[in-house]
Amino acid sequence: MSTNQQPALDPFFVVSDEIIPPRGETAFPMAAGQLCRIIDLEGKQVADLLCFDRHDPVDKLSVENTR
What we know:
Number of helices: 0
Shape: globular
Oligomer: single chain
Strand order of the largest sheet: 1-2
Distance between the termini: 40 Å
Strand content: 15-25%
Helix content: under 10%
Number of strands: 2
Order of helices and strands: EE
Radius of gyration: 15 Å
């Protein structure tokens, strides 16, 4: 492996597992290649999702603004 290659990430390794109450929130950093899975446990909810580039916060993904 060359010095600038990252090791493969294990897609089954859980970094964080949270249950967020209705109208709750959370924030956490992610590395390139990691997977974020959002599961609605009770149904009939919509998850708002905002993603920011930690090195350039102007670069973001806002699901509400990119429907």
